[in-house]
Structure formats: C-alpha cells, structure tokens
Specification:
alpha/beta, Jelly Rolls, 466 residues, 6-stranded parallel β-sheet, 7-stranded antiparallel β-sheet, TIM Barrel, 2 domains
Length: 466
C-alpha cells in the first residue's frame, strides 16, 4: 500500500514538473493578451520656423481662460479612416500646443471650472472617445514625453472585448496609475447610432452600469460624459445632469464653447481632431476658439470671421467690401469669433457704414450673438431699428444719408444704441451676463441695389466684465 502511494506521489510530482512550463507559458500568454507591449514615442520632428510662429500666436492670448476641448478617437500607424490619428501627428499636435503656451488639463480641473471655479491657466482638455487600444500602445508614451494628460471616455461594456481594438482593464489600471490619464463615461453599451436605449429607464440603467464598472475596477467616479456619436437625443437632460458634472458633444446647433454662457446647460462643444488635421491647423483653430477680451479693429482680424455656414466668408462678402461684392443674393451675414467671444459683456461696438442708398439697402450690427437674447441694430438710409429676439423694441427716423455711424453698447441686459452721435435707442432684457459677441449683416431690395459697405468696425471694453 505504501509502495503504491509512493509511486502515485512520484507520478504526480513528475506531472507537475512537466506541466510547469506549459502553465508558465499560458500565464505569459494571458498576461500579454491583457497588457500588450507599448510602442516608443515617435522621433520628434521640430520645425524652428513653425515653432516660432506658434509661440508668437500664443503670446497674443490671455494667460488664464476657459479651456478648449479637443476630441480624438483612435491612435494608430495605419489610420484607415478619418477618425484615427497617427502617433507622429499626435506628437506634432502636442508639440505645437506646448509651443503656443497651452497646457493639458485634467478632467477634474475642467469640472472644477464648469462648477463655477476660476479659469485655469490657458489649456486644452484632450479627450479620447471609445477607449481604444491605441491609447495604451501609442498615445501613452507620447503623453509621457510631453508631460501631458489625457481623458479617455470608456464604453465600459466593451472593455476587454474585441481585442485588440479596445483597451483591457489591466491596461486601464496601468494608465490610471501613471497619473497621465483619467477615465470618463461614454455609456456602458449604448454606443450604437440610432439604438433604442429603452427610454429613460433603459438609459438610467446603462449609465448606472457604466458607473458601477468604474467603481468595480478601482477608478474614480467619472465627472464627464460624452454623447455617443454626439447625439443627445434619447438621453434625458435631467438624468445626465444628475449623474455628471458636464457633458460633451462634437456637434451643436450654435457655438457651445466652454464658457459661462454655456455653463448653465452643462453641455460643451469639442473641436474634433481628424486624421488630416495638421499641427499648424490645429493650433490655429485652438487659438481662434480661445476666449478673448473685447477690443480691437475687427476688420483687421479677418481670420476670425465666419459666415452663417461656419466657414470663412467668401471673397467680397461681409465683413469685407469693395469691387468684389457679389452680384447675386439679397442677404449676407458674418460673425466675429463666435467661440472666443461667448462671454463678452460690458463692451461698445462702433461701426462706420456707407452705401446706404434710398433704394432699400440695410446694414445690421448684432451683439450678444449666440446667447439667449441677441440684439441687432438695423440701419438704412433714413431709419434705425433696435430688434431683440426678433421683435422691434425701438425705432427712430434718421437724417437722410448714405453713411451713418452706429455705436452699440452692451452691459448685462442693457443695450444702448447711438446713431450719428445724436439718435439714441435703448432696451433692457432679462439676460445673464456673459452673453456673446458681434455679427454684421447686409440686405438689399434687389440685385440692382448696391450693397452697403463697412468702412470701420471697432470694439472696446466699456466697463468691468461681470
């Protein structure tokens, strides 16, 4: 009996010895499957002339402002689609932003500002939707080189699935431990365009599962939520506001930059970064969206104007003029830096306009653009109207003339207009401070009527911004 037990014990020991290499190999395979090797950051490629230009661009911007939010998706060597950025391009983006004086913010810093805190140092919030594997393999080492921070928005129900496309929980754990990343919510399993989330109850259950997954893996509770495909439909506002400090979208019906004007809605617009976005294009667009104080010659700053379709105005259209004015059309419109002026308050806009013939040409100067209570002055050959929210608040006759000077002053809900230094109109609206910037428009009765021309357009601060 003892001999049989001894032989059995020796057999088990031999089996264990033989099995050990296979077990070790299996554990190594599992480990590599959960935490893959990282690629080194690409070799830096600095252009001294471009770097000098970015530094000069940043030198003209305020040191402390509400942040700009950037939206990335995957990082990979072979993009394959417009939403994937190469490691080399991400590295170039961070180089350009740093040269222009931008730092990267944490989600906590962004949330603190969104809840009413002071503006942080001039910066960007780097967001990465979906939680793709490229964040660990490529982006993490690039962030480490630049001392930068990223915010990854996880579809928690897909973590560890469809490998290697999505991150694994062990990779996320290592990213979190590095201090270079924080993790936010992009739903648990509702990331399907047009999917029925089962109504408010289904959405609530999904978002709760997302939050539970963060807690189960030792991650802080997310403060931010990005809408799948930027579609807010189907996600009840009250529910999302109850669970998160702020929400993010890449598409908005009107500019919703991180600003005090947008803060009550707790939803902010991101700048989407695509595979073709060069470093120079990115840093210049970020600069255009960085909040500015009111002031300066707006006609000289033509790069910041956008037409009604959010594209640069066509040659000859407003706010320009001269012989290249278009022969067709009866209406033109352009806004000045709609993202950068969202919090303007306590300012005066002065416009000199000519070409106001008696045949039906009208010039429009708008303020509080993009806010809840826009106001517009409409000046013709012999009449001025003050229009607010589409309703005429005041109207006066003017001395007949083809040229007029218009001064429009905004402070809080009070709007005052003075034309030619003597005709005065005023209106008061129930509006919050920090309500937006400037737009111009022109209309004419027919194509044979000349367009009005803006000869001068300046803005200056006339009181402490509230």
């Amino acid at each position: 009996m003892n001999a049989r037990l001894l032989r059995a014990a020796l057999g088990l020991a031999a089996a264990a010895v033989l099995a050990a290499p296979f077990a070790a190999a299996w554990q190594l395979h599992e480990h590599r499957g959960d935490v893959t090797a990282q690629d080194a950051a690409p070799a830096p490629a600095a252009d001294p002339a471009a770097t000098a230009a970015w530094r000069a661009l940043g030198a003209a911007l305020p040191d402390r402002t509400p942040p700009v939010v950037l939206a990335y998706h995957d990082i990979a060597h072979d993009p394959g689609n417009r939403y994937t950025v190469t490691p080399e391009r991400l590295d170039a983006h961070l180089t350009a932003l740093a040269a222009a004086g931008y730092r990267t913010l944490t989600a906590e810093e962004f949330a603190d500002w969104a809840e009413g805190g002071p503006p942080p140092p001039r910066g960007v919030l780097l967001t990465f939707d979906d939680g793709t594997h490229g964040l660990w393999v490529h982006a993490d080492r690039i962030l480490a080189r630049h001392g930068a921070h990223g915010s990854a928005f996880l579809i928690t129900g897909r973590v560890g699935r469809h490998r290697p496309y999505y991150l694994s929980w062990p990779e996320i754990s290592r990213m979190h431990a590095s201090g270079r990343w924080d993790f936010q919510s992009h739903t648990h399993d509702l990331h399907t365009r047009g999917a029925d989330g089962g109504g408010a109850q289904g959405v609530r259950a999904d978002l709760r599962r997302s939050l539970d997954a963060f807690a189960a893996h030792g991650l802080p509770r997310p403060a931010l939520f990005s809408y799948p495909f930027s579609e807010t439909r189907g996600f009840p506002d009250a529910l999302v506001r109850d669970l998160f400090t702020a929400t993010l979208t890449n598409r908005a019906g009107r500019p919703l930059p991180p600003s005090r004007r947008s803060a009550p809605g707790e939803c902010f617009e991101r700048l989407e970064v695509l595979s073709g976005t060069t470093a120079d294009a990115l840093v210049r667009e970020v600069a255009r969206r960085t909040p500015l104080p009111p002031g300066g010659d707006l006609l000289a700053d033509r790069e910041r104007w956008v037409a009604a379709d959010r594209r640069p105005p066509a040659p000859g259209t407003l706010p320009g003029g001269g012989p290249r004015r278009p022969a067709a059309g009866r209406y033109q419109y352009a806004e000045y830096a709609p993202h950068a002026t969202a919090d303007w308050d306590g300012y005066t806009v002065r416009a000199d306009v000519s070409g106001l013939t008696a045949g039906g040409a009208t010039f429009g100067l708008a303020a509080r653009v993009g806010g809840g209570s826009p106001v517009q002055v409409r000046v013709s050959h012999h009449r001025v109207r003050l229009v607010e929210n589409g309703s005429t608040r005041a109207e006066r006759r003017l001395p007949r003339g083809t040229a007029h000077r218009v001064e429009l002053t905004v402070r809080g809900g009070r709007t005052t207009v003075v034309v030619d230094g003597r005709v005065r109109l005023a209106a008061t609206a129930d509006t919050a401070p920090g309500t937006g910037g400037v737009a111009v428009s022109a209309s004419r009765a027919g194509r044979d009527v000349p367009w009005p021309v803006i000869d001068a357009l300046r803005v200056e601060r006339t009181g402490q911004e509230q």
